[in-house]
Amino acid sequence: MSWTDVADAAAAVCFLLGALLGLIAAVGVLKLPDLLSRMHAATKPQVLGLLLMLLGLGLRLRDPGTIGLLVLIGLFQMLTTPVANHMVARASYRAGQLRVDDLVVNDLANDDYEGPSRGEP
């Protein structure tokens, strides 16, 4: 058994685990009851699934230029997903779409933000 056979088998395992985590994320988004739980289900397994897919693709293709591009994709995904979900959670809190009594810690309870006044963008 050569190194390429081992890398191809590891790539197949990464692809299967990544697809399974994507499926778990989709089921979580459909079945969980509230917005924050759905956001958690959409981010954690989905990002890990994507990283496993990128790892499998890197193991399968074995081209240094492609691997560098895959690393950049994974890095940008890891940087942008938490920020985007934080902003969605904050916006939904301010819009009153969360059940505040279900929160264990509410750091925004004393936030005096009232939204933009009329005439401001």
Automatic annotation (TrEMBL):
It comes from the Bacteria. The chain crosses the membrane at residues 6-30, 42-61, 67-89. Belongs to the CPA3 antiporters (TC 2.A.63) subunit G family. This is Na+/H+ antiporter subunit G. GO terms for molecular function: sodium:proton antiporter activity. The keyword Electron transport does not apply. It comes from Aeromicrobium yanjiei. Keywords: Membrane, Transmembrane, Transmembrane helix.
